[in-house]
Structure prediction request, 387 residues.
Amino acid sequence: MQERPGDSISMVPQGRVGLWELVRYFLRLGAFGSGGPIALAGYMQRDLIPRGWITEEEYLQGLAFSQMMPGPLAAQLAMWIGYIRYGAVGASLVGIVFVLPAFLTVLAISFFYVAYQGLAIVQALFYGIGPAVIAIVASSAFRLAKATVKTDRRMWFIFGIVALITIVSRAEIALLFVVSGLVGILLYSPPGSWRKQEHMLPGILVSVAGLSVGTPLLWKLAGFFIKAGAFTFGSGLAIVPFLHQGVVLNYHWLTERQFLDAIAVGIITPGPVVITAAFVGYLVAGFWGALTAAAGVFLPVYLFVLFVGRYIVRYREHPALKGFVKGATAAASGAIAGATVILGGGTIIDIPTTIIGIVSLIIIWRWKLPEPLLIAAAAVVGLAINR
Prediction:
């Protein structure tokens, strides 16, 4: 089989950028980068291409790969850049330092949360934060649907079915992502459209739904968050439905209140939203729980970069792969929308929380206030109401 231009990953001579120079850059970006995954990806394009550390083609390949695969986009793109420069060592070091600032921040917040959550002032703060988080999650579902589903009636059908199942069953079913992806293949990639030989896909659609975990708590945490990382299609907040089903409904590790607090912590800290996993892990099993959960949720991303990335780049135009991603992303949007309804029922409990939720939604749509600032403002309002 003859490869087309751009199909393979060319390892540029390593003298172009030093390993530790690359690591220092991603440590700074992880510590001070803000604005969400798209903004972080934009910073990488702005900073690295003019320096000659990566080419425009390599960046676009990495961005396409990160958009098509599950997992946090910015972390995946960072690991990709580390991989094409220094292989597995580069992907490992870049991934660790990019996530480390967010992990340490969440660890500190978790410590004080556990120590002081019984205080009235902390409860008052999160009384206001809860409705704002619901508004952010609802806005995320809308933006994701607008960007991916657009005017495609078939994708809106998948969106609606998944949202309805989520609301009626009051459960978020991870298998729906896979089923929706397979439906997407049937809708957008009839077998007759597949070109033989050149476009034969290897087994790159990975499922870990049947992953077995042992009885110890840390093994359960690891197994659950590995699954979560493998099913986070669409955006960082796409992990919300999966987490809610597992940590609240199945394992009863967190209450509804604690779960919303966990999402808020993921939003206000730097780095990917899925760092919420560390907060959940800390509440369940302390420091080792936080470390296990964080490692678990990023492990699929790391493995995709090392073992799947080159194939995704090579076959990214294959109709079956594109169809699977379309279906899974539509399902992610629907699951977030359904989860918003479920979570909102336990958070919007009175007139003040209703007003906070509505005003937060208006602010997000009208003025696009950064989410951490919105949560901070909602916390102040909650404190003022409950003085």
Notes: Confidence is low (pLDDT under 50) at residues 1-8, 10-15, 196-215. The chain has 14 helices and no strands. The two ends are 70 Å apart (CA to CA). The chain has two domains: 14-93, 103-385.
